Every structure is written in C-alpha cells, then in structure tokens.
Amino acid sequence: MNTSEGRSVQLLTAYDPNYVLINLAEQWNRSELERLRSESTFRCPICKKVVRLRLGTKRIWHFAHKEHSDCQNDYEHESMYHLTGKKQLYQWLSFQSYSPLIEKHLKHLNQRPDLFLSSGKLQIAFEYQCSSIPLENIQKQSKAYIQAGIQPIWILGEKRLSQISRFVFRIDELALQSLLYSNSTYPYLVYYCPLKKRFSILHTIIPYSSKIVFAILDKWSPNNVSFPFHFPFRNQLPKPYIDKWVDKLFTSRMYLHVQREPAVVFMKHKLIQKGISPCHFPSEAGVPTNYLVWFQTPAYVWQTVFLIEVIDPLSVGQTVHFRELYGMFLRQIVQYKIKLRRDISDGKSHLSFAIMEYLKCLTKFGLLKWGGKAQFTKQREVQFPNSTSESKEQLRKMILLLN
C-alpha cells in the first residue's frame, strides 16, 4: 500500500445514490460518467462519506475523498502509478474470464486488498505494492490473510526493481517477504509497470547478502502471462550466472579485511586462531543453494562457520545424524551472531531445509557421504585454499557439480 501526506484519498470504486457500485476499472465512456456526475452524489463504500468523481485528461479517472479524509477504512493515498497499475491488473484478470473484485473491504479482517479473487475453494488477495511500507505491515497483512484461508500474492511496482549488473540486483526486505514459490527450485518475484504495460519476472533468486541477490530477469507482455503464474523456469544455473557468483565471492575474499559485521568478525578471529588467513576460508563455503533466503548473513560466512565449527571437528569416518549437526549449528548461530529471517512467505520450508540442502552439496563435493536415515559420514578433511585464485577455481568446479 502507498501512503503520502497532503493528498486526497483516491479510489476506483464508489456507490451511487442507489447503492450501485461504480467501478472505474470497468470500461466507461466519458460522456456516460459526466452524466452520472451531474445527476448523482457518490459515496465511499466504507465510510459512506461523499467522494468526488474526477475525470481529468492527464490522470486516470478516479474518486477522491476530500483533503485529510478520516475514512476509517484507512484508505491509502494512492499514486496515479499505483491506481493505473491496479486497474490494468484488474483488466488482465478479467480478460482471463476471472471475476476479480477491486478494493473489496474484508470486514472480518479490516483489510482492503487491491484485488480479490474467489476461485472455487481458493480465495486470493492481490496486493500491488509500489512504495515502501514498514516491514511489519506486510508481515501482519500476509499473516492475517493466511490465517483466514486467503492466499496473499504481492505484485511489486517495477519502479522498485533495482538492477546492479547482469544477474545482480539490490533488493529490500519488503521484496523478500513478497517472494512467490512454484515447482521450480528457486523463488521468484512478479513486478508490473503500468506505463510500459509489462510484467518483469525476477526468478532463480539466490540471496548473496542481506540486500544483494543473484537472479534472472525476464520481461513479459500481459498477453503472454496468465494466472495462476506458470513460468518455464529452469532449475539449472546458467554458466554466466555461476561465473558472476564466483567473481562476487572472489571480491568478498579480497575485501574481507574491511568487513565489520559481527558474524564476519567472529569468523575471521576463529580462522586466525586456527592459523588460517581469513581470506582463505574453506573452498566449500559460499555455495549458491536453495533456501538461502532464511539467512541475512551471507552464505560464505554461515557456511564457513558450519564447516569450521561443525564438520571440521569430526573425525574422518565418523557418522552423525542430521539432528545432531543441526543442533550443533544452531548453537553457533547464537555465538557468531548470524542473522536469520524468522518470518518469510514460504510456509512450506524451514531454516533446517537450508542446512539439509547445504549438506547435500557437501556430499556431492565428497566431503560427506549420505548414509540414509538422515545420517552423514565424514569422508575427508575440509579444504582450505592456499590462495584466493585457487579457491576461485575450486568453487567454480564445485558449483558446476551441483548442476
């Protein structure tokens, strides 16, 4: 939802004197609306106060509360970008023979999703988010929807998309709370631009750090996108994607000495105690795996901690159950002050999934052997590279094994 001070509250729906809902997202001609405006008084569907029908030539037609409205529905002060996008998304769903409701007030939740869809037993609330809101707001809304048996789907305004370079994007916590999940291994995000009338799909998303993710960006015309979303994502990482990840990790090694994040400081101190240069952290650390979204701390940091505190102390040939490995690492999370994400939108996974995924990678690298019944046997010692260039080549070969 978009809020801004000093603007009248704007919406696309209002009641006429006969309590017929006028929906401006439908097809109207100007003369018909001008006639209605001259003959009728329109009222907000929630607070029942008078709203004005605005039929400008530069902005999307809309209803507006008076300045500083105290509408109890807590309508947001929507930008024209948001209103236009909401209207186009309504039409996009309607063209697919759905019957979406726009700005429907869900009284039992005191929520007003931008679009609401009831399809069989499935109820879906679409939120088109174009501006920043407090993170707790989106978490609270999503939780309320889910508890009521409503699936929340957050579509972001494309202007929120920040690309640094090919495969590298800057992303905020709001976007990470909006991740969508499909049969693909990795999550994705849906963006929409009402000015260019296109969807931008950010997929194969793997967080590198708390604000940087690696991903693939595809752009689609609404004519080529249908709901439910089904995109031909591949689980295999493209080679240029892997090369970019390895280059980024190489840079992180080179500049590790300037990092001041508590987890990094603890990690560097531990490596020095072991007589290892911090930039020579294990070759098996920094692997782009699924479920990394559970961590705010970079993968190369927490994976290094896992290797030096959980795996390295084991004897070669020793067998350990996953529960024990997981419990040992949970204690290190506290000690190293590794940052986690507690509330993310994927209700089908858990932090333990990220650890199990990493353990599976270590079996492919030959460090561990899968013994069945969630047991792992250590096969060799953890590798510490002799140089950063050596680590770069070793990691590239390891990641290619995962494909």
From TrEMBL:
Residue span, Competence protein CoiA C-terminal domain: 267-390
Pfam families named in the record: CoiA_C, CoiA_N, CoiA_nuc
Organism taxonomic ancestry: Bacteria, Bacillati, Bacillota, Bacilli, Bacillales
Boundaries of every Competence protein CoiA-like N-terminal domain copy: 26-72
Source superkingdom: Bacteria
Domain Competence protein CoiA nuclease-like stretches: 78-227
Coiled-coil ranges from the UniProt annotation: none
Annotated InterPro entries: CoiA-like_N (IPR057253), CoiA_C (IPR057252), CoiA_nuc (IPR010330), Competence-induced_CoiA (IPR021176)
Protein name from the UniProt record: Competence protein CoiA
